[in-house]
Records
---
Amino acid sequence: MPINGMSRRSVLAAGAATAAVAATGTLAAPAAYAAPTLPNGTSKDKVLVIGMDGLRHDRIDAANAPHLKSLMANGTYGLSLLYAPPMAATSSGPGWSTIATGVWPDKHGVKDNSFAGKNYGTYPGFLARLAQVRPELSTYAAVDWKALDDQGTVTPGTDAKLVLDGDRDGYPGHDATIANETESILRSQNPDVLFVYLGNTDAVAHSSGTGQRYLDAIAVQDGYLGRFLTAIKARPSYATERWTVIVSTDHGHADAGGHGGSSVEERRTFVLAQGPGIAAGARPADTRLVDVAATVFHQLGIVPDASWGLDGKPVQQRSTDPFDTLLPSLTGRVDETGIPAGVLGFTHTAPSGWSVINSAMGTGGMTEWRGWAFATDEFWSRSQRDQWRELNVRSRGVFAVADSDEWDDKANSGPYDSTLVTPAYGVSGKTTVRLDFTTLYRHEASQSAEVLASFNGGTPTRIKSYTADVVSKPQSLSVSVPAGASGVSFRFRYTGANNWYWVIDGVKVTAS
Ligand SMILES: [Zn+2]
């Protein structure tokens, strides 16, 4: 059984299962294969989700993977990073739970491969949710990491399922069986929604790293994907059907193989989707792993109820975040040394209508973090690992960050005192104005973080003060509009010395 934070395939990694390690998915298909009979489908909108375990997106380029590359050209390919401990390990339990449920580990509760604390009752996988809201859909799941069935992550609610034990028997043969059965169902039956898991990429990375054997394993799974795509196009009713195909992965791998920790290589993940309404060749910066389930619902014409508490959004919907307008102007490191020079991920130029007041800041310090900066997850979290910067899961694309801890890594006169100012928003004739944003705030006693409101350019008054950690949560602050006020602007003021940080993203102002 897997151990907290450790590889779920440590036995394979040790080389004990030699038969499985020797094969790379080339086992012959059974001569005659009888797939289960699914109920006849009821939807012309159809979705196939393929999960490839531990698939590093930056290795696909080097692999013989024409079908994955074709999906990238004809679909939308959103790269992102995962959480890290202490929110959750970059392991399969949290990863597949995030993909299935469409919420982050602080909701679905799976922090490692023990699955302790799982909360699938409140946050079920998308197939279980579909069984509740669209029981007439014909659904199928196939997994050979058996935990995804044992723990109820993927298979509950399906009309038929194939569950195999790759940890016991090896993944190459079982992946091949899953491919055979899935292809058969796609060719000769009428399923509506399928979730198909392939595990050998992860097993090979554990046993031999992310080199040639890993590329070979990617090529085998790419061949399975090609067979699925061919089977879909060969369906007699294909012309009247609207198919969406989604490929995703639960975590990355260190170059030498292994994951669970906070390195960028372990945190790398992606959502790749092709289907109606999904842009060809798009590379959005605001896609995250929780978006798989939201995309499934959207492609089936299902509007998630607010009570489901989904964190995801469909891959074709762009965020309207003002900070994301800065993407084209992001630049590379200046004083930082832990961030590779090629990672373009920060700027001090505020979005149109926004400003930063640094007149109370001391001199010097790390250039990147002198006052509020606008940065990406990869750029900021690579500045220093394992200090909770990886837990910024509800930010997307570019966000605003005030980081006194990193700023203080170079000589400065102190203090850190920076204020981020929003544009003025119209409030004429309104009684209440609401400020929504997401935040990651790590507290320490001698720092301060305040939100202030200024009506008609008047003296800003404090509407919120943070005095405890807030680990990536949505915030909603409502303020009464004074009689006669026509405009409001908000300020985020952070002060400290060598303390922690404050992240703001997804700012939205609504007057009513
Ligand atoms: Zn693994």
---
Amino acid sequence: MRLLLLSVLLPLFAGCAGTPRITAIHDPLYRAENHSSTITARATETRDGIAEITIEAVVGELTACSGSGFSLPSLIPCRTGASATGVVCTFANVKTEVACSLPLGLTDRRLVTYRATARTARRSASSPSVTYAGGAPLTQARIAFPFGTITVPWETARPVIWRTDAPSSATDRGDKIDWGFVPDADMPTYRAFTDDLQPMVLPLFYTDTNSFSTWTRVWKDVFNVWAGPTGGDGEGCTRTFAAPASTVRAAFDGTAILHRNAFRDCASISLGGGAGTAQTNLADAPWVLLHEAGHFLFGLGDEYVGGGNSSISDPKNVVGSKGSCESTSTTFGLPTSQCVQIGSSGTWRNDDGQDTTMEDRTLSSDWRTLSSKALGNHLSKCINGACY
Ligand SMILES: [Zn+2]
């Protein structure tokens, strides 16, 4: 396990002298109507300079995978009628960051996959493939029988950032954390939901510079991000899911209900199939989203006084006794002297005194002590092909 992790980490942090660094992202991340989508790739290489960036894209129609022959429609989409497009940008061996863009006009039920490659005179590097949906979503599917075809109402999960070059219901997602987002009943429109989704997700995985988002930015390739249809409703710690959200969220490892009305956010303590709420118009909305995800994606408990001080993570970040905290801490190489009771709750945690995301509502928080160990273990499971 350690070796495997090391072999993943080394290329990330060591890199190779002269190898370009390349990232690519599409904008907007998701919009369920006709729109202009722009894929932008940025590359840097300071020794030889960037000579070329290419963006290759495949665009086709999103389907529910129920094509010819009898097959039930799927929640994870397929693509049909795919065609390739792309752009090549050339540069005079530029040693500062350069960018290249591919605009796409997206209409009903588009499914796009892209990958960007940067070249110097000597080396090249590519970004991992990303698949996303755009345009009006699928709302019905055809099921073929020997005696004919019927059409049924149907919705699929809508890929926002799906890390695959082969979109299909058969694509293995075991090594990914499939994080779904659905609108709350208080969202004025679906467009308002997709507009609010972007400034929640983009900082967490790409653009934020605070320490709370370091883990998600470093490990972003482990996450698939999905949007779901309406039907979700949260208020305080009560969450309900009606169709079609209730059906589609079965495809997710955890679901965030995005809302605008003010209420205190809350989440289930889950390792698969959980959900929580996140208010999009808070100044620190991405932080709150990540804290709630600590509960519903990673099974972590609150470490602050008065929170939900129970945990199902591995190891638990909140335990029932001082002795249990000390033995867990010893197992994971943490000082037993850091074991402290959470107020007078009778529950215990390992506290190194630094801001930690399950306790301290500040952008300088991080996953620390037993929370950090639990996330490391979860990541190992993903790398071994079974996040959940
Ligand atoms: Zn909490």
